[in-house]
Model the fold of this input.
Amino acid sequence: MDNQFDTDFDAEFFAGNRARLRQLFTGTAPIVLTANGLLQRSGDNAYKFKQDPSFWYFTGIDQPDILLVMDKGKEYLIVPQRDTVREAFDGAVDVEALTRRSGIETVLDEKAGWKQLAGRLRRAKYVATIAPAAPYIEQMGLYTNPARAMLLRRVKESAEVELLDLRDHVSRLRSLKQPAELTAIQRAIDITNDGIKYVTAKSRLAKYAFEYEVEADLTRQFRRDGSAGHAFEPIIVSGERACTLHNLSMNGRLSADELLQLDVGAEVNGYAADISRSVSFGQPSSRQQAVHAAVCEVQDFALNLLKPGVILADYEKAVEAFMGEKLRELGLIRSISREEVRRYYPHATSHFLGLDVHDIGDYRQPLEAGMVLTCEPGIYIPEEGLGVRIEDDILITADNNHNQNLSHRLSRELC
Done:
């Protein structure tokens, strides 16, 4: 199983994260966190493993089904049992490697580990963990990894304890990026910038006939430059297809009179970039230029608002109002209302960025220095076959500039 996380993060980083969690939690209940499990792709074939980002944040371990237990200054890992057939295909668990990576000295097998944990749970009234999501998220149309739910079920089978949810604590920690994290994010951004520059050079654009050809070249560039690949499924579409925000088909034929939309991000050491650009194959039409210019104006407006102390809900309302003015100038709406604006701008302007491309963070709390967010306004006009999105990755800073555009080296020019 390939390790998607590099070794630039040492055991001290993960030990420090565990210490900060203990300090923030303050309670005496045992903390139990689980790795993700493998998910079936078909038959006996699994999808490529993707670790639970929060479990990795506290352990550095990129293997499935392992548990982390933190209890009264003690910490240990519980490793699942693997039969000889599983070991033959997936390999045996290297206990010494787990210790080196995480800095956790005590590693127990499943039987001994659960015996120790169950005994502790029977004496405790509470257990602290990350509450599982619903099995199916209807809004997104996806099933969630069952590992957290399975952990909670086994905990409750072992003892009658009440759950203390650590989601807010973990969100607080992960939203404030440390220097090593910022280095990884910047590297992912730099690789993304270079990849976009490569595939959108006029000499190369002229050679592409289909969207998937752009994606193939971009993937090659990402891997060649040291990325683990894409941080999320790339969105490379043109014309009307760009009006479907997460259009992943990339089967469309490219046309010289349409704009090409790229929403892509490389992954480095598990950390994501997320950058969008709209480009023209030749001389863009006056309408394409006008819509693109409007999106750039909205982004400039939004960037001026991103600073410490800002509440994202207030920020989104201000950007929505300004977008309404631009949409009215473009002749798309007559009155500025949420319903009218959302016809052509149906998504939020910013989200947190980190181990997840849509990283965890508290949207109710003021922004702080050290947070990384995207800034990605867009205008989508299906009736004109035109969609434009511009996205950059922004570090909130404490200096007078308020923020730093980490992807500023990549031009926003349409052609």
In short: Residues 176-405 form a domain with the Creatine Amidinohydrolase fold (CATH 3.90.230.10). The chain is about 40% helix and 20% strand.
